[in-house]
Amino acid sequence: MVARKKEEETVSMVDTFKEFKDTKNIDRTTLMSVLEESFRNVIAKIFGSDENFDVIVNPDKGDFEIYRNRIVVADGEVKDQNKEIALSDAIKIEPDYEVGEEVSEKVDFSKFGRRAILNLRQTLASKVLELEHDSLYNKYKDRVGQVIAGEVYQVWKREVLLVDDENNELILPKSEQIPHDVYRKGETVRAVIKEVNNENNNPKIILSRTSNMFLERLLEAEVPEIADGLITIKRIARMPGERAKIAVESYDDRIDPVGACVGVKGSRVHGIVRELCNENIDVVNYTANIKLFIQRALSPAKISSINVDEENKKAEVYLRPEEVSLAIGRGGMNIKLASMLTEYTIDVFRELDESEVDEDIYLDEFSDEIDQWIIDSIKGIGLDTAKAVLNAPRDMLVEKADLEEETVDNVLKILRAEFEGN
């Protein structure tokens, strides 16, 4: 039974060593150092010191050797059993040992018992985990902004867990997912590396598919002129999965930046649109002329005139009635993206004929029928008169004045009644 127990301990010891010998992401020299340090930690706990021990790691063979070095002293004069050996005991090892010589004796680690082996496993596991964390952090810390492909490993409500080609974990939070994205275990997903955190030496690689950076990198991959520096992406505005506006500029007059980015019949953006769940992409020429830039940003609407307040970063845009809905866009999407792209607050107004202006009525005159806070909300988006409100898109009143649909419908009913009554 005793012999069998020792044999089991020896096997367990070899298995313990082999388990960590082929650890991923850790170079050979570092791993040997960690293994030796772990052995020494256990030896120091058992003998009080590891100074007089030689630890030889053989990674190719998957084993190790430990030797304890002690000085031979006369019988009865041993003061430190770990570092000294009595002459009579030394002679049992080699008969020609003399006092003062050094005895090097091979140590059978398995004889230290299960506790020592368990201690070694825990020490190794802790140090290897620490090294793997360091390796993961060092691998990704300088890769923020790069696109990476990962395999979906687990899908949760708040995030998706992906793994790279070395089975490192990558996190795609819900907030960084395109709303229409669907993830299935085993499929490959592309995203940009948004940030790399390393709190308490526990690295987390955060990915994003909604970041402007992701769209920018996809464009660089599809448009050689961008990668070569002939075209510059100046600004990006996105509503992920819905629509995006991109402002580009070329430093070479021979290159049409918009045409180069879109490609023949949209060939260069087709792949990007599919990648982004059919997110429509509008590309416009960038210009430092803010009036012209706002006009381009509001495309496909055609502007009649524009007033710009550069100090407060506000713009009043006037359009023909048929152009207003184009400028606003479905759900206010076009004007929102234009504001994001230009970094200006844009208010849209319908042009009125002089005859229409003469017949108009200021909103404040309806204070007996419409609550003042509602009037103030509507005036806050630049609509001061009844006809200005009636000519504005209903969606604009709901979205920009932040009013309930029922409230807007009631206001429109009151205003129409005024003119119909005349």
Automatic annotation (TrEMBL):
It comes from the Bacteria. PROSITE patterns: S1 (PS50126). One of its GO terms (biological process) is transcription antitermination. Keywords: Cytoplasm, Elongation factor, Protein biosynthesis, RNA-binding, Transcription, Transcription antitermination, Transcription regulation, Transcription termination. It is found in: Cytoplasm. Its main location: cytoplasm. One of its GO terms (cellular component) is cytosol. GO terms for molecular function: DNA-binding transcription factor activity; RNA binding; translation elongation factor activity. It holds the Pfam family S1. Participates in both transcription termination and antitermination. Belongs to the NusA family. PANTHER family: TRANSCRIPTION TERMINATION FACTOR NUSA, TRANSCRIPTION TERMINATION_ANTITERMINATION PROTEIN NUSA. Monomer. Binds directly to the core enzyme of the DNA-dependent RNA polymerase and to nascent RNA. This is Transcription termination/antitermination protein NusA. It comes from Xylanibacter rarus. The lineage of its organism: Bacteria, Pseudomonadati, Bacteroidota, Bacteroidia, Bacteroidales. The gene is nusA.
